[in-house]
């Protein structure tokens, strides 16, 4: 299939308000860390943690294990697990705020462009499901002047706009334009107080006194942790979004998470279309899409020399251009 045919097929698959799935690869272009970078940051605290399980965990990382596998294979004290959660929060929050402090309002922000395109037709809504803790999605939603729905109230980016008829019209439109962002593993803004209250403090520079961050770090414990609130309600909302979507656009998502996958995989097996943008297709992605015989899928993957390898049911091609990158993909969609 030539490039024009590939573009037409992708456009057909995504023509009816696709649900957007964001993995860690979607945030990395904006300065957010990879899993490998998180692993390095965690083990910087090796000398200050008195836990044999943590020693074994860092040794596994040193021998080439990935972060989640190393956590799964290690037995850590509860105190150590809480410390890892705080280390992860501080590191990701620092990177997130560094991005926020840059002037991104008028820049080439691909996720904002994506939201603007998806929200144009009825029902005037974007649905996002993400395993990320960062606020990249919220920033993008604010940039397009949409109301953010996360289960918590509030927005992050504001511009001076004195009262006028045009301001009134924009406010009405913003209430009609919504971006639902379901963070199944928690958010940098969510905290649990010592008295058991769930609260959200946007753009905190540090963990509030007498609070702990409500993020679920990688590893086997994330599945047990998410049976409590607010995760249970958020996952229910994410499942409903998957069921109601007409198609799916996955960006930087590796297909390694049981909170997202069951409803998604079941729906694409029924015939809903899926488009995947990835720097490198994971083995899990290949297993669930290519090897599973899904009928309507397109995977865009980085290839050598600025090219893109594209896989679909029954064919694969290599094209000039980095269409696996969201910025470049938006130019052809």
Mind explaining what this structure looks like?
The protein is α/β, with parallel strands linked by helices and 333 residues long. The protein has a single domain (3-30, 106-332), classed as Rossmann fold. Helices cover 41% and strands 20% of the residues. The chain is built from 14 helices and 12 strands. It has helices at 3-13, 24-27, 35-43, 52-62, 67-72, 78-100, 110-119, 136-143, 165-176, 222-225, 231-244, 261-269, 283-290, 326-332; strands at residues 19-22, 125-130, 147-149, 178-183, 186-193, 198-200, 211-215, 247-251, 273-278, 297-303, 307-312, 315-320. A 9-stranded mixed beta sheet has the order 3-4-2-1-8-9-10-11-12, sandwiched between helices. A hairpin with a 3-residue loop joins strand 10 (297-303) and strand 11 (307-312). Helix 7 crosses helix 8. The radius of gyration is 20 Å and the shape is globular. 38% of the residues are buried. The model has no long low-confidence stretch (mean pLDDT 90).
């Amino acid at each position: 299939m030539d490039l024009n045919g590939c573009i037409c097929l992708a456009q057909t698959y995504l023509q009816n308000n696709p649900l957007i799935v964001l993995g860690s690869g979607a945030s990395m272009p904006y300065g957010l860390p990879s899993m490998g970078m998180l692993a390095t940051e965690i083990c910087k605290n090796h000398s200050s943690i008195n836990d044999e399980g943590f020693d074994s965990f860092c040794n596994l990382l040193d021998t080439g294990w990935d972060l989640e596998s190393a956590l799964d294979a290690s037995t850590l004290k509860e105190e150590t697990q809480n410390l890892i959660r705080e280390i992860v929060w501080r590191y990701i929050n620092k990177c997130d705020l560094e991005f926020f402090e840059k002037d991104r309002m008028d820049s080439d922000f691909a996720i904002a462009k994506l939201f603007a395109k998806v929200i144009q037709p009825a029902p005037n809504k974007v649905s996002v499901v993400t395993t990320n803790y960062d606020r990249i999605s919220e920033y993008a939603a604010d940039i397009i002047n949409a109301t953010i729905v996360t289960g918590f109230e509030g927005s992050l980016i504001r511009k001076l706009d004195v009262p006028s008829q045009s301001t009134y019209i924009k406010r009405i439109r913003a209430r009609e334009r919504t971006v639902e962002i379901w963070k199944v593993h928690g958010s940098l803004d969510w905290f649990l107080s010592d008295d058991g209250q769930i609260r959200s403090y946007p753009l905190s520079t540090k963990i509030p006194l007498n609070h702990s961050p409500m993020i679920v770090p990688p590893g086997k414990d994330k599945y047990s942790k998410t049976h409590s609130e607010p995760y249970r309600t958020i996952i229910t909302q994410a499942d409903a979004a998957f069921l109601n979507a007409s198609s799916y656009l996955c960006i930087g998502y590796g297909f390694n998470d049981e909170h997202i996958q069951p409803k998604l995989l079941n729906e694409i097996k029924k015939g809903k279309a899926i488009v995947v943008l990835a720097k490198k297709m994971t083995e899990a992605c290949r297993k669930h899409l290519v090897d599973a015989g899904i009928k309507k899928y397109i995977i865009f993957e980085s290839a050598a020399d600025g090219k893109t390898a594209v896989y679909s049911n029954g064919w694969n091609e290599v094209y000039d251009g980095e269409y696996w990158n969201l910025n470049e993909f938006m130019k052809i969609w």
